[in-house]
Write a structure and sequence with these properties.
Shape: elongated
Radius of gyration: 23 Å
Helix content: 40-55%
């Protein structure tokens, strides 16, 4: 039978670290769900696969720590998971917005009918497909 953690004088530090860990994964999941702006780009970006990884990690943490958390830790983890699951379902049901090319990109210039200068016309365009496999 697994040993159950008892609240001792030193466990307050562990509780604070646990809260920080859960908050870290929750924040990352919320960024991946597009609910918080990415601090690097300043934009909200949606990546449901990444969000699922963070939620799955918190679910694993919940399973692995079952019976070893104090009431505060248990409540925090349960609340974080409930909120993230609801946000995930909401985002999964929302269709991905079609991203129109942004101004200033070659795609935007072509789609708006703007002509490109001679120097860029002579440069070869890099293909987005790096590898191509054919079968016979």
């Amino acid at each position: 039978m697994p040993e159950v953690q008892r609240d001792t004088i030193g466990s307050r530090e562990d509780t604070l670290r646990f809260i920080e860990l859960v908050s870290l994964f929750q924040t990352q999941a919320m960024m991946a769900l597009g609910k918080l702006a990415n601090p690097v780009t300043g934009k909200a970006e949606r990546n449901l696969d990444a969000a699922r990884v963070f939620i799955d990690t918190l679910e694993m943490l919940e399973r692995k720590t079952a019976g070893n958390l104090n009431a505060e830790e248990s409540r925090l983890l349960r609340t974080a998971l409930t909120d993230l699951r609801l946000m995930y379902v909401e985002e999964a049901r929302t269709p991905v917005e079609s991203s129109s090319p942004t101004a200033g990109t070659p795609e935007a210039a072509q789609s708006s009918g703007a002509s490109s200068d001679a120097s860029s016309a002579s440069e070869p365009r890099e293909s987005k497909v790096k590898f191509h496999k054919s079968y016979g």
